[in-house]
Amino acid sequence: MAALPLITIGFSSHRLEVLPAVKEEMRRHDALVLEEAPEPSFGALLAGELDAAAYQEDLDPEFPQFSQAELELAQDLHRAGKAVLQVEPYLSRFFQIHELLAGGLSRQEVESRPGLREVYAAESLASGALLTFYARAHTASFPRVVAAVKEFARADAARFRVRDDLRAQALAPLTAAFPRLLVEAGYIHLALVKALRRRLRGRARVRPVWLLASRVRPVLGRPRPLGPGDLLTLRHIFGTPISSDREDLLAARSLIYIQLLEKGELAPGVDPTPHLTNEIQAHHLTAGLSWPDCAALYPRVRTAAPETAREEVRRYLQKRST
Question: pTM to 2 decimals?
Fold first, then answer.
């Protein structure tokens, strides 16, 4: 009896330090599915007719160093006989919505297009909640900022449910062409596992893998680094019950946690996983903070550079312990 097709979901972040693990995992797979909307010139890139720098000129990627290195890896995989695909229907529809609006169509006309209403609604809700957070972040009282974080987490969770379901719908048919698929997915997309299993109904195996687990588990006791904001969002994604006090605390901690993270791209060197190290450090600094701790720290760190913010939290914790 032939083995069932395999979909491995490789959970990671879009950081340079992840790519060696992707390359290693691809030794056991036939195709790599990138977490990005299809681009018309991607085939030319894979064929070597277009280099990675030229391909990215008009794309403005969020993490340009990672993007270029991943594209070069994609070219290497293509030359080695592996397939590399771009599958992210939510983003495809999101870009289509922007193009239609820029072309002069009304919201009602855009929403009437097949498949766009759900994405438009999810994106509008999340964008509105994010704008509310930005409006409050530097001037509102701490409880009102925390309330905005909670509202955004709920809206973001609704968006991720739509996004993961659409991606599962697009990924499921690929098992007919590729017996072993490696799917790129951010840490927050845990619902993709459940959505794929529901779509496939036993016709393929779905295997979640955390690509940097070997470096995280010995330190944190779990395979992935998740900040308090991610934990809050995941609870809403899966409908996990949470007390109002716990929800408040995770939201409050997230306001400190995000200020401790480096915003630019860090290149692996002596430390092969600098972003992971930064995330683990932020976890240790925030895991024991109470609501009053966060309320006291937020004015000190909300506009500080990450290193300054980390030092502020260290000093606060040291003073608190004396």
Answer: 0.94
Q: What is the mean pLDDT of residues 110-120?
A: 95
Q: 66, 36, 69, 68: which is closest to 275 by C-alpha? A: 66
Beta strands at 6-12 and 83-86: parallel, antiparallel or unpaired:
unpaired
DSSP-derived secondary structure letter, 113: S
Q: Please count the residues of the chain.
A: 322
User: Is the separation of the CB atoms in 182 and 8 below 8 Å?
Assistant: yes
DSSP state of 189: -
Average pLDDT over residues 48-56: 91
pLDDT of 215 strictly over 60: yes
SS3 category, 254:
helix
Band (178; pLDDT cuts 50, 70, 90): very high
* Exposure string for 192-229, b = 16+ CB within 10 A, e = fewer: bbebbbebbeeebbbebbbbbeebbeeebeebbbbbbb
Query: How far apart (Å, rounded) are the C-alpha atoms in residues 285 and 275?
Result: 15
pLDDT at 1 over 70: no
Q: Is the pLDDT of residue 2 over 70?
A: no
186: nearest Cα among 21, 4, 9? 9
CA dist 125 and 136 (Å) reads: 17
Q: Which residues does residue 206 pair with via DSSP β-bridges, in sequence order?
A: 7
